[in-house]
Design brief:
The structure is a homotrimer of 319-residue chains.
Chain A (H helix, E strand, L loop, with lengths): L24 H15 L16 E6 L4 H13 L3 E6 L11 H10 L4 E6 L4 H8 L5 E7 L5 H15 L6 E5 L6 H12 L4 E5 L15 E3 L2 H4 L5 E4 L15 H8 L3 H4 L7 E3 L12 H4 L6 H20 L4
Parallel strand pairs in A: 1-2, 1-3, 3-4, 5-6, 5-8, 6-7, 8-9
Helix pairs in contact in A: 1-5, 1-11, 2-11, 5-6, 5-11
Chain lengths: 319, 319, 319
């Protein structure tokens, strides 16, 4: 479905950020290390650096998401870029213009970077392959395919709390089947050398042959959480809570919702992550979400630094 | 309904602006005097001051209002802040996230200030009590409860034209029952020492026991407007114009609509105010709205300076 | 319908840009020459000049158009202005406020410039006549009347590729009847001395007595395109594609859609223009749209420079 990945340039430098699949360890570490330098910026009195001054960054959101759009807008403004928000669902697309015509027009207006969210897998790839050198694309979520900045902020958070990747046992819990977040996480974690990545989910919410991604599969929390260092919860989409995939959200919570009891099966110093927005009482209990092991809000904070890092690395590439 | 007001800090300095109720005279005067210094800024060639450079201000509008949002956005940009507009009605809330989870996420993105409009009384209070020190909340209208910046720009306008508060007779006219603006005005005016605040309205549009707020009640314009220095008109919401509250908008205009004839019952130098947007021909006649006694557009101008004042006072508080 | 044009001041300097009709050649050339100086800005590392720093520019869009709004927003931000986007369709207008009350309020907030798009012809004129000196209005499209910045970027593009106007044969092709773009183009081209402007359209898509605008009328492409230097395609609105005006979009494409075959009837070095968004396969074939004679994307690029030029000329006028 998705053709050859254009995200790496001739010298294997990052030209677009489309997926964590196939991203070299060196680039993953470059992003994490650059993000580390930006963590301090947001604590300054004046939370801005002039790295992207005069650059035009377009939030091209074909799928609605105030939260994700806002994180990119904040990151871009802290880098002093000019940001333009285009909610394309209600615009030119409805006038019959094609996706690439829309992009061509924005490129003609001297766009420097596109942040793309689209309900179809491969949309950001398509744009990245189409634009001329010097213009960069960041995938902010495409269909069920990838959401690489979410995965990068997750691994940043894990490194922050656990220091190393090579000695960790990490479990991803929930709707793996429909989750672009889970796919991006798995690729990033395995590349960074995490020796054991587990997925815990009912069979109806697992892709077939998921083991091929290099994960261990569990269907119950008790065995799946044993000796785990990091728990990465997934959001359960409302539309999955009834019908074909699950009997009900109450049933799901009973078996897979993270309660203090289930959490106690993991290591004592395990951390709990969630990409947000949370469904309290569905995939996570409030006692855990607000508890001492949750690092869900630090994830958000680090997310700004990670997005600043990706933008500044891309903008700094020679054409 | 609304618990202890967190808007004052330990030393009774302003930490949030939630309501004019209980706001000390000294703080009201601090805001008015600071606003006075900003009136000049908007007349400069470059209408900006760098006081809030690098600060992130979030317009959190759970209730739609382009006009009010724009005034805060203008004020924030003239203070050189970065402004983020979040129309929450259509966003994470619809994904089932709670109000405080949304706020926690934005705080984690290093928000410095929230401008909150919500259809439920107490929403801004709830947020103010929740956030950590150093983050400030401005109530931009909550249910029927309060709209303090509107009341502050009103008293700024009155002081501009009448110089003193202690010798004034002021009438608030219209739908007192449903008006957060009226409640905030009454608290501000009585605190500032206005000796006589009147309300003029049909019985169906008055709260029970409104006298307890320290106002004199009138049901007809002729007696209510006699010897009045300031007329503060209220907007009549469309949904009140028929049914239980009023027979029709024509009937309302006949008895309570401000015409030149009714205005002539007030003092010769009385001023006419309106918070906008006006329903011409319902609560106010165009001959008055566009006449020499109206100070409705100066209210708007002063509103920017007042909002700049509140923001800069809040941002300047030691944590 | 539209009363005396307020766009020229006492000394015939540009005070508002409302229409290309009656705009003196000297002002047309002033805009084109100023735009030329801005073409370079967008190629700089930092694509910004401080000409409008501290100015408040309001995009007042009563009719939805992300593309046009974005071009003005980009132009304004590259001039360092503060830009405020107001989608009025969903705002105060729905609360019953009149157009001029909305404008008065924004003027009271110290607006410096309005970019106005409205479905009614004459809306921008009405605002321009209403505001006080020193406040400027740019018409971004009003009903079927005018879209002057589109026409200006078109003549800029023509001058860029053809150097002179006095030796050109130019054809405007498509739905002339409903097109504010076509009307503005015709006025600009005839003022600049183009000796022959043709319109090519079926009778149902031509205004009656269109010849009075100084154009030659053709109903078929073969004769209309003969020896033409410039082809200006118009967008065919979806609602015209069926019913009273046209039998179907396929039928329209057969007779008026620009294919390589039809293009070969024009001069060998003819250029093809389109205001966008394109309906590929309706008014234009992809082989032409993406071909070597198309200058459709350069039009977009020049459009930013032209809008920067208009804004900076207006803002620079003495009050």
């Amino acid at each position: 479905m998705i053709s050859k990945n254009p995200q790496l340039g001739k010298n294997r430098e990052l030209q677009h950020l489309l997926t964590t699949e196939g991203l070299p360890t060196s680039i993953l570490l470059q992003i994490l290390d650059t993000a580390q330098t930006f963590v301090g910026v947001t604590e300054r009195e004046v939370k801005k650096v002039p790295l992207l001054r005069g650059k035009s960054i377009f939030n091209l959101f074909f799928e609605h998401s105030t939260r994700t759009r806002t994180t990119f807008e904040i990151a871009a403004k802290r880098l002093s870029a000019d940001v333009f928000n285009l909610n394309i669902a209600v615009s030119a697309q409805s006038k019959g213009e094609t996706l690439l015509d829309t992009v061509d027009n924005l490129v003609a207006m001297d766009a420097d970077m596109f942040i793309v969210r689209h309900s179809q897998s491969g949309a950001a790839h398509l744009i990245a392959k189409h634009v001329r050198p010097g213009i960069h694309v960041i995938n902010a979520g495409d269909g069920r395919h990838a959401h690489p900045t979410q995965a990068l902020l997750d691994v940043f958070t894990i490194r922050h709390y656990k220091k190393e990747f090579h000695n960790l046992r990490i479990a991803i819990i929930g709707d793996i089947l429909h989750s672009r977040v889970a796919r991006s996480q798995i690729h990033a974690l395995t590349t960074l050398g995490v020796p054991e990545v587990r997925v815990i989910a009912p069979k109806t919410l697992l892709p077939s042959k998921v083991e091929r991604l290099g994960v261990r599969v569990f269907h119950d929390m008790k065995s799946g959480l044993k000796d785990v260092d990091v728990l990465m919860m997934l959001r359960l989409q409302k539309e999955r809570m009834q019908g074909a995939y699950l009997p009900s959200s109450e049933e799901y919570f009973k078996y897979y919702g993270l309660t203090p009891e289930k959490l106690s099966m993991a290591k004592q110093d395990a951390i709990v992550m969630h990409p947000g927005p949370m469904n309290r009482g569905v995939e996570i209990d409030s006692a855990v979400a607000d508890g001492s092991r949750a690092v869900i809000l630090p994830q958000v904070t680090f997310g700004i630094a990670v997005r600043m890092a990706v933008m500044s690395i891309l903008a700094g590439q020679p054409v």
